[in-house]
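Researcher: Structure prediction, please.
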Amino acid sequence: MPRSRNFISRIASALVRLAHGDSGAGIILIAAAGAALIAANSALTHDYHELLHHPFFPVMAQPLSSVHGWINDALMAVFFFVVGLEIKREVLDGELASAARRRLPVIAALAGMALPALVYLALAGTARPLGAGWAIPAATDIAFAVGVLALAGKRLPPSLRVFLLTVAIVDDLGAVAIIALFYTATINLLWSGAALAVLAAMALMNRAGATRALPYCLASLLVWYCVLHSGVHPTIAGVLAAMTIPLRLSKHGDSLLLRMEHALAPWSAYLIVPLFGFANAGVELPQGLANLIASPLPLAVAAGLFLGKQTGIFGAIWLSEKLGVAPRPSGASWLQLWGLSALCGIGFTMSLFIGALAFPAAPQLVDAAKIGVLIGSALAGLLGFVVLKLAAPPSSRT
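Model: Predicted structure follows.
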């Protein structure tokens, strides 16, 4: 009995360590996605869809009539707000602050967005409706990728993690730009003008030296509400509002941006993103799954993530080094960089999000895209993990 208690205690301790490390958010996200798939393909399927899509909230805007709408259009705005804070911090005072440091990550991220889109279009074609999904495989899921990197070995060069985070940040910025430019159908000028007016007021608060959180939080909510009615996807409000948060350091070496990021990042990683995964990964797998996978849409998405991402990013790193444009991350071998490039093909959160925007009137295409995202992300994560394990120092493997 004591031996069995010790064994259970060791397992519990290991799980606690995993949950609190870099891998924690990725593991929780995997569990949420797995739970969604089980619910959607079991006797719980009706309850699962009823929970997410039953219109029972008071409708102040059509997208917010269901739990699914609140997760995708409200909670995900908080996720994008955190992304915006991270982007601003990195651009002004981080890995993207100098031209020398941002050159390689920007080149790699751009190549890692362009090539998956080209692979997708080559397989799915440019004609509508499938052509609208070209951006689905262009995104990287930072929680998953960093989590798998942490599981692959602690003795991998620190430069790999920094490079992965920086590429993912540039990737997120690109994804936000794509959503704003290519997945906005009609714009209501009145509501858009109101949102811009509130953003201008927030910028003036910043210039005036205001550092209290409450006024910025209330103004951010107002921006989100205006953008919700503007025709632009409401999550863009999160990024725009984050750009107005002051980064100026106080005499204590602190700033409002850092405090907000520190306070919201755990909620985003451990609650909002898993909720999004649970609400969006629950696709019903048909009996003819093999035939569906071979159809143009899921095949194009999976190939874009698995082949396009690693080829684009690794190719950009290799060419930059060979042409003298930018050196590869310090201490990293080519095998490790290949594994890292493969990890960037885990596109889960952003890819599912863009998939829902690409086919708003065709739920069957959204489900087909989800299958492609799940397969491509799983293959990319598995390949990246195996390659990084093989490339890690022997003490790290044990």
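Model: The mean pLDDT is 86.
Researcher: Thanks, that helps.
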